Request: fold
Amino acid sequence: MRSLDALIASGNLHRATPAPRAPAAWQLSELAGRFVELSALGVSASLTLAFGLVLDAQRQGEPVAWVTPKQQSFYPPDAAEGGIDLDALAVVCVPNPRSAARAADKLLRSGAFGLVILDLGADGDLPMPLQMRLAGLAQKYHTALVCLTEKAATLPSLGSLVAVRVHAARRRIGPDRFVCELRVLKDKRRGPTWTHRELCRGPAGLS
Reply:
């Protein structure tokens, strides 16, 4: 069993009600072909909201890949409890963020995935030539590329090629109940005009 600290650090909550269809701006069809950054700072709702996209993709029969450094991989039982089909989720564990970016390059180049999640963590940084290549591949193969970063909302995005930058946070509203909030900071298509909130419950042991 994981410790309470591990449960809190995971940042992965479960929806208090059956998972709804994603809102218009936060769903695979809107993000396909685009370079997205989902940032958060500390304990957050980033995993919960990223898994919402994974679930949306799986409902549509789109293959999904999740690339993550080994030291910050998500906890699979949490994902499964949230409705994710783990058998249909390709998880690639790599030594560091730079290796994660190279793995994402290969996955995008295959043209086989509708969604690629690239977990860069707090130390994630993508050189501009690599960003250009990844963004170009995402557009070419109509794949949503979502990079998870750990930073404050006030800090700059990964770069000018990011088409959508959103920031995730959570706040407690009662025992074992949280609101997961998603605020758009940049959206080249819609503008920074939308937010998204979900009522979630904490994993067992987090109250």
In short: Residues 4-201 form a domain with the Rossmann fold fold (CATH 3.40.50.300).
